[in-house]
Amino acid sequence: MQKHLTGLSQAELSQFVGSLSEPSYRARQLFQGIHERRLPTFDEMTDLPKELRAKLTEHAVVSTLRLESRYLSTDGTRRYLFKTNDNLPVETVFIPEERRDTICFSSQSGCPLQCTFCLTAQLGLLRNLTAGEIVEQIIFALNDAYGVGVKTPRGTNLVGMGAGEPFLNFDELMKAIRILKEPGGLHIVPNRVTVSTAGIVPRIRELATTADRPHLAISLAAPNDELRNELMPINKKWPIDELMSACREFEKSLKRNERFTFEYVMLDGVNDSDEHARQLANLINRHQLHAKVNLIPHNPAEPLPYQPSSVERVESFRQILEAKGVHAFVRRPRGRDILAACGQLAARSTPLVAEART
Ligand code: SF4
Q1: How many CB atoms lie within 10 A of CB 167?
Q2: What pLDDT was estimated at residue 358?
Q3: Which residue did the predictor score with more confidence, 2 or 141?
């Protein structure tokens, strides 16, 4: 089987070139070619001798994801639907902003968790993505936005909020994060990465003891067990109090001025009342957490039974949190028209396709 080199660290690449009886400096060149110059094939790595390129093509590949469709939103957001080499869907979203770009990547094809407000849940788990498949999504999005290997004009932030529960694919996720930060490669440091979990408690605790880690966001969606069991069934395994005590442990491991985030999707008439806001603030204060709360108006998608809370409702919810000392922000949805917004990724095509099969 051909080796997927995008998922190898520099040390692993050295071993690999050694197995081809090549000197170890070739590993450095290869790593640069794949990650810094973002070249999708060995043929384009013209600093390598022709014979070596031929040998590499025989034994390895740089990219494995195949672009199936590309959708362009009126707000500039791009959604990519890829297929893996075993034909499973992978989705990535590129969100340009004034000062930085954000790439939302997937950690799994589909997702085993059954959050009722999320379209991805309907796919079930197809499989975990490899570190190489995670890194490849970033390389592809940057090449598509700026051209192959072209220096990006702004910084790049990464969010692990695409399809899948990242903490159920912890080892490959962390490996991808280590590869992404290498100075001779993409050089996107963990401080630029935020990973969102539905609340896999043991991994939150593990992250608390991990050096060089990404920022943490926790999708909460409800302030009490009864409602959260309904909206996010993972809560039955790790109920809110257990989740909060892991959060407390994580918060203790943060540096001064660092914060983690709760994500709270706002579902009209379901979890958005003044009473829910008071319960949420009390929950956070009772556990002595300093986390901030991002309020995310739900992104409607058929056949999900929910509607987004109104602008006024979201604002009143935010004000109650602030009045009780909890910092809260409203997140602006991006790419709704192309089903690229939070909770909308389900490998679907949309009527508003701007470009497909490029
Ligand atoms: S919200 Fe996240 S964890 Fe929940 S089903 Fe969707 S992708 Fe999975």
Answers
A1: 22
A2: 29
A3: 141
The pLDDT of residue 352 is: 36
Q: Is the dihedral of CA 222, 228, 232, 237 positive or negative?
A: positive
Buried b (16+ CB within 10 A) or exposed e, 106-140: bbbbbbebebebbbbbebebbebbbbbbbbbbbbb
**Residue 198: CB within 6 Å of ligand 1?**
yes
Ligand 1 atom with the shortest distance to the CA of 164: 7
Whole-number pLDDT of residue 345: 66
| pLDDT per position as a tens digit, 8-43 | 999 999 999 999 999 999 999 999 999 999 999 999
Nearest atom, ligand 1, residue 219 CA: 1
**Ligand 1 pocket check for 118: Cβ under 6 Å:** yes
- Please give the Cα distance from 170 to 24 (Å, whole number): 29
pLDDT, tens digit, 9 for 90 and up, residues 54-108: 999 999 999 999 999 999 998 899 999 999 999 999 999 999 998 999 999 999 9
Place of tokens 């490849």: 136
In this structure, what token pair is assigned to residue 350? 């949309």
CB proximity list for 153: less than 8 A, separation 6 or greater = 146
Q: In the predicted model, what is the mean pLDDT of the chain?
A: 92
The pair phi, psi for residue 281, each rounded to 5°, is -60, -45
User: Is the C-beta atom of 165 inside 6 A of ligand 1?
Assistant: yes
Residues labelled as active-site residues:
91, 342
